[in-house]
């Protein structure tokens, strides 16, 4: 399954995780996510974590 959307970066460099992705991964306010940049692939991934 591929879920993607385009989001805008705010003036404080914040982005909103789109509702359909929050619902799919059951991300709620206060949850922690890990942001990982892969230099080789040039990608940024958001990983849901409960740490």
UniProtKB/TrEMBL annotation:
Source domain of life is Archaea
- UniProt-recorded Gene Ontology molecular function terms: DNA binding
Against InterPro entries, the record matches this protein to: Repressor-like_regulatory (IPR052975), SpoVT-AbrB_dom (IPR007159), SpoVT-AbrB_sf (IPR037914)
According to its UniProt record, what is one Pfam family this protein matches? MazE_antitoxin
* Segments forming domain SpoVT-AbrB: 4-51
Alphabetized NCBIfam families for the sequence: lp_hng_hel_AbrB
* PANTHER family membership: REPRESSOR-LIKE PROTEIN SSO7C3 (PTHR34860:SF6)
Specify the protein name.
AbrB family transcriptional regulator
């Amino acid at each position: 399954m591929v879920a993607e959307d385009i989001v805008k970066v705010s003036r404080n460099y914040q982005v909103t995780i789109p509702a359909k992705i929050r619902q799919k991964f059951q991300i709620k306010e206060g949850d922690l996510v890990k942001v990982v940049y892969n230099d080789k692939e040039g990608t940024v991934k958001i990983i849901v974590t409960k740490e």
